[in-house]
Amino acid sequence: MSSHLPSDPAEPLIQYVASCKLPTPWGEFAMHGFEEPGGQEHVALTLGEVADGQPVLARLHSECLTGDALFSLRCDCGFQLEAAMEAISREGRGALLYLRQEGRGIGLINKIRAYKLQDGGADTVEANEQLGFPADMRDFRIARHMLNHLGIGSVRVMTNNPRKLDTLQAAGINVVERVPLQVGRNPYNDHYLDTKAAKLGHMLIK
């Protein structure tokens, strides 16, 4: 079953593959798998009825292996992932899209290279730029197709980045509210979070 076959060749292709149950510490979610033609895989987790026409509490979470799976304290990603799942569980309804866009789109190995530059004094934006990448390379159009497949017409997005809302709207996603998600600040990511606030517009309170 295909969730989207765009007529515009500039549009990303993504295909729905299958769904299954995913029991977690925050409840039993449904996990939906999607695949791009090049083999890149993405998943969406849903809880409760999300296709009823009402705005859905959602997190569009870009993959962060170091933070999500290896418990890194250099960022707040893993903390945000857990907090988002907990918030969806409390509400009894919501969606988490896990997008394979490591390092704001530069990939895992380049992220390690960026971390090395940060070890030498560069901030998170400077490191990406020194490697020849923009500060943020993510493409959220695939998320629109995933949401469409799930029957989600509008979202209340858990994010600290107001600019992300503009990016999502430009990608065709109907965002009706920004829900703050401020967790995980620690001595190892303090400068990283300050840089995100100063250079990327994130709304963060120290």
TrEMBL record:
As one GO molecular function, the record gives:
GTP cyclohydrolase II activity
State the active site. Answer: D136 (proton acceptor), R138 (nucleophile)
Q: Which domain of life is it from?
A: Bacteria
Q: Zinc: present as a keyword of the record?
A: yes
- A Gene Ontology biological process annotation? riboflavin biosynthetic process
InterPro entries documented for this protein: GTP_cyclohydro_II, RibA, RibA-like_sf
Question: Binding positions for GTP?
Answer: R59, L60, H61, S62, E63, Q80, E102, G103, R104, T124, T159, K164
Tell me which cofactor or cofactors this protein depends on. Answer: Zn(2+)
The cofactor binding remark recorded in the entry reads:
Binds 1 zinc ion per subunit.
Tell me the protein's name.
GTP cyclohydrolase-2
This chain's source organism reads Chromobacterium sphagni
**What is the gene called?**
ribA
